């Protein structure tokens, strides 16, 4: 605690010693500011005039920035649309390939069915021929039976 008190006293003395120097430096700073004000005033007016000249260009720049932002947004929209179209195209190609495979399967099945139909038609003709032949034999048998029956009745 005593060391802190001694430190406070030393620092207080130092502040008192430096106070006149600080005041002197503040006066010098004030004089520098006053002398610069005379030099800065014309420069401030020039800066203000230059800024006024830049206003039309700034408007053009702001318009160009807005056009650029709009173009970027449109590009994003078109890019998304392109992605969607590419996705749809890919899906359509896959569907087309699937349909082609189904058509090939159906063509093979059609050939099999056509071949089977041809065989069946041939078999139907054979059976019809056999029926026709049997019908003729049936008639002959009926005539033979009738003839035999009449001969038996005559006896």
Question: What does this entry look like structurally?
Answer:
This protein has 155 residues and is mainly alpha-helical. Helices cover 99% and strands 0% of the residues. The chain has 1 helix and no strands. The chain has one helix spanning 2-154. The longest helix has 153 residues, at 2-154. The N and C termini lie far apart (169 Å).
The radius of gyration over CA amounts to: 59 Å
- Protein structure class: mainly alpha
Q: Strand tally, please?
A: 0
**Residue share in β-strands:** under 5%
Cα distance spanning the termini:
169 Å
Q: What level of helicity do the residues show? A: over 70%
Number of helices: 1
Unreliable spans are none
How would you spell out the order of helices and strands? H
Q: Mean of the pLDDT scores?
A: 90
Please write out the topology.
Elements: H1 2-154
Provide the descriptors you would attach to this structure in a database record:
mainly alpha; 99% helix; 1 helix; 155 residues; rod-shaped
Q: Nutshell version of this structure?
A:
By secondary structure, the chain is mainly alpha-helical. It has one helix at 2-154.
């Amino acid at each position: 605690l005593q060391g802190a008190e001694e430190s406070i006293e030393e620092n207080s003395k130092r502040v008192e010693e430096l106070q006149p120097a600080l005041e002197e430096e503040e006066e010098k700073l004030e004089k520098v500011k006053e002398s610069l004000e005379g030099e800065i005033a014309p420069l401030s007016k020039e800066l203000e005039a230059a800024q006024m000249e830049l206003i039309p260009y700034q408007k053009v720049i702001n318009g160009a920035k807005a056009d650029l932002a709009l173009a970027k947004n449109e590009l994003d929209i078109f890019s998304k649309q392109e992605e969607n179209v590419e996705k749809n195209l890919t899906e359509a190609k896959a569907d087309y390939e699937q349909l082609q495979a189904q058509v090939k399967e159906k063509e093979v099945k059609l050939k099999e069915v056509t071949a089977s139909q041809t065989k069946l038609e041939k078999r139907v003709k054979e059976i019809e021929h056999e029926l026709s032949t049997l019908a003729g034999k049936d008639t002959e048998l009926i005539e033979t039976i009738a003839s035999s029956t009449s001969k038996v009745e005559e006896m």
